[in-house]
Amino acid sequence: MVTPAAAGRDTSAQARRADRPYHEDMGTAVRRTGWSLAWRLAVALAAFGGICLVASMLIAFFIADHSSSDSSASSLIAIGLGGLGFLAALLGAVLLGGLALARFWRRARRPPQRAPGRS
Q: Residue ranges of the domains in the chain?
């Protein structure tokens, strides 16, 4: 069925392609500017480590029973969360440092760009 708005026009796919000869690809390289998986993982590990450390301190301060010499469950949970948080934060920091060093090394190895028109 032909609508009144499209009655005088050719609405075929070939006619639409003729209106825009370049389509979607104009020959320019698309460069992603988003964070890579490694950067997201490093930031997530560091954040998770910080959250675990804070939770460990809160449990140790408010819940854990420090009056007895026995290891209570809350004390063990606080110690475990603290250890997990420390390791996650350390791993995230090492990963962030390695990624930053790799990016710096790539930029340092790149030859300097000359000004246009100079030889």
A: 36-110
